[in-house]
Records
---
Amino acid sequence: MMSPGHAQQMDILLIFIGVMLLLVLGVIALSMAKSRRQKKALPKAPEEVPPQVRAEEKETVVAKEVVKEKEALAPVAPPVAPVPTAPTEVDLKEALRKTEENLFGRIRGLFKTDAVGKPLEEIEEILYTSDLGPTTVQRLMAAIEEKLSRKEKADYESVREALKEEIKNIFAGSHSTHPGEGILSKIQFADEGPTVLMIVGVNGAGKTTSIGKISAQLAGQGKKVLVAAGDTFRAAAGGQLKVWTDRAQVEIFSPEGVTDPSAVAFDAVSKGKAQGYDIVIVDTAGRLHTQANLMEEIKKMKRVMSKVIPEAPHETLIVLDANSGQNALMQAKEFHGALSLTGAILTKMDGTAKGGVAVGLAQELQIPIKLIGVGERIQDLRSFSSHDFVESLFVH
Ligand SMILES: Nc1nc2c(ncn2[C@@H]2O[C@H](COP(=O)(O)OP(=O)(O)OP(=O)(O)O)[C@@H](O)[C@H]2O)c(=O)[nH]1
Ligand SMILES: [Mg+2]
């Protein structure tokens, strides 16, 4: 039993504990209220972001995870030769700078050094040494003679305008005037089934390189491209083409052990037709127009393709190295006689002083120049526009 004194002490202790508890609870309540006030003053916490934003964030996270999964599952890309990656397009005026200097730069210089009474013979000589070809030079000289007065013939601006006008007329006759709207606009597409392009030309003109560049651009436009390794002549040719098709990310048709280029061409067009390809591009071995047996072989290649698709090849394009100047004209004439070309690809326009050959080609063959190569990178191929070309030549 507890004595009455003890019981009194216990009561006091209980009251003290109760008061202490109340005090502690009060302090807690106060600090909670304070922190709530601070939260209100802070910027929006993540929980308060609108629900649609949270949903977008979630989607991004999910998408990132899917990409990660895909990356993990994707087959390892085959080793490909490094491609220069600068995406910048070569400036046409820059690419044609040497041609401009060689052609109109020299005519300009002529007028600067001797301001009056320009001898037309000097202009004629400059034109003759500019890889335009004799027929073109005669046509240009006739235009100056006929259209300009004596006084105008001594005036650089008048001579320049007369030449510019006549060169435009020459291009108009060769169907090269089409403005540069990308290479798709330069290709005659088949109404149905694959469009077949046959690429021909002498050794080292730039056939394989141009095929790589064309393929990359067509694949970039969503076309399904098949490239046929029709150069069975050189052992290394297939490998070179493979480097380009890997870069362009298109398929190559290069059957093991087949040495007959006509068989490769036939099978490639058949495959293109059976498997729904949009474009079949056939590479060929380089050859000189003087090599009669090789010219017969390439004619046969062309013939067998038409057995699969009567209109094939829809385009027979000659690749010409602009540096070969007048020789390029000769090559084009001979190949045209054998294969009825539908157009030309003029390569290595960058850095050559002989770009004037484009005018000669338009004048003497009326073959449209469809594309021009302006460098060694995969993106260095442009659709040819005579308007842009002439403007780049007459830039000063
Ligand atoms: N600067 C420059 N070089 C080019 C251009 N086109 C091609 N070349 C270079 O020309 C060389 C020959 O190119 P290829 O594509 O192998 O020529 P090809 O006509 O296939 O040669 P063959 O198969 O031997 O008949 C390569 O070194 C290319 O890089 C161009 O537009 N500009
Ligand atoms: Mg080649």
---
Amino acid sequence: MFGLTGDFIGQFCQPLRLQYPRLDAIVQCMTLFESHYGSLKSGIGRVAAFGARIAFPPVCVGCRRIVAEPGTLCPQCWLDLRHLERPWCAVFGTPFSHDMGTGFLSAAAIADPPPFDRARAAVAYDGVARRIVQNLKYRDRTDLAPWMAGWMMRAGKSLIADADVIVPVPLHRHRFFSRRFNQSAELARVIARKSGLAFAPEAVVRIRPTRRQVGLAAREREENVRGAFRIPEERDIDLRGRRVLIVDDVYTTGATVSSMTRAVLKHKPAGVDILTFARVIADT
Ligand SMILES: [Zn+2]
């Protein structure tokens, strides 16, 4: 119980901790309490978990119907979720209806090659996947991040195997302070922890506040994010000569991750790949 509170403050309220030393002291007290009374905590924790389960039964991450296990989908939502599977375009990870053989590219990848090497996403951005993304982004459902990251790791297995460092798409600091957390960083943090890869959330910064991309046409999206990212000089070391895995929640037209890739490429990485939870698929 205390660990959870401490972690919450530790992870999501870092800016507040820096501003308010007293809050930092409270977190440290909680950590101390936890280390000294671990066994007591585990007893309290079990009782609390039992009580919480009765008071707050686990609900579907897509629709909030009651389910057997926390962090799972109900059967209806499971059927609605479209996992992106092979055979797929070697660059964009978009599924083909027929197996074209290894390394085959989609028409989009041939006509307009992106600046990054490969992009992969776990699910099509539609229906329940859209609700899950919006719950994480706008309703502070950070409890969804580990579950979403698990599916991303499955879809991006080979990208993770090749990567040296994970970098989330950053928010502009104004948006970070109004929203309090960056959903891409939450996903990236879990993937880095589970895979043991380096996590560099400050390697790239968004230097100008961009309009929300929702509702913009492809060309407007490109204009909106052009030159929006910069790498602080001291962060060159995070990127140079390394394979960079950029993590975001949704891939729509690719304008944001392409703009960020171009900024990263100026620092001569060994390569850049993109991993998102969901991706807009034209035929859905
Ligand atoms: Zn459901």
